[in-house]
Amino acid sequence: MPRPKTYDDDLRQRLLKRAAEAIAQHGPGGLALRPVAAAENTSTTAVYSIFGGRAGLIAAVGQTASEGFVAAQRAVPTTDDPYEDLFNLGRAYRAWAIENPALYQVLMSPRDPTLSGDGSMPQSAAAAPLFEVVLRLIAAGTFPDVFPPRIAGTIWASVHGFVMLELSGIFDIPGGAGMDVLYAAHLESIRRGWRVG
Q: 3-class DSSP state for residue 146?
């Protein structure tokens, strides 16, 4: 009996990337295995071997999006200055989204049980680093003592809006450095807007 063919991690990552692009554009329902496999010069057999099938591939895309984003946020060092930490979290947020636009679209799409396998898109895990720094800013008296999710929610909405406009190409300043400067000003306006005094 012939031994089953094995597939390497490089192919796995390429299939995930192709699938994420398809899901970002058409939603999980629009993911077809044949075009994804063909684009990477392989067959649907590889998808079944690596992911167990279409549902497994979709769930893996959702997990990859969540884990990648959370890892990027958690990689931001925690210092004694939560005001600076908030700025650095915002920069890491945009950097990951620009580097992984399809995964970002998947992560920020409406909840879909097929993306995580159990129906729980991990927004709470993704928001945890932001929530933690907001709590530190309130404890330090830098931000007002109001309902923390209100502060975190408005910050996330503002950063997400900027990033989505940039990714869509609607909001663009010629030259990448221009967008970097504009985003830094945006982050500064957010944290100054919440600062007490």
A: coil
- Helix, strand, coil percentages for the chain (3-state, nearest 5): 75, 0, 25
Three-class SS state of 48: helix
With contact defined as beta carbons under 8 Å apart, do 61 and 55 qualify?
Answer: no
Question: DSSP string spanning 104-123?
Answer: HHHHTSPP-HHHHSSS---H
CA–CA separation, 172 vs 165, rounded Å?
A: 8
Task: Provide the whole-model pTM.
Answer: 0.86
Query: Tokens 């995964």 identify what position?
Result: 103
Residue 27 has what DSSP assignment?
-
| pLDDT on residue 85 | 98
Q: Residue 170 and residue 55: Cα distance in Å, rounded?
A: 33
pLDDT digits (tens, 9 = 90+) for 18-61: 999 999 999 888 899 999 999 999 999 999 999 999 999 999 99
The angle formed by the CA atoms of residues 144, 149 and 150, to the nearest 5 degrees, is 60
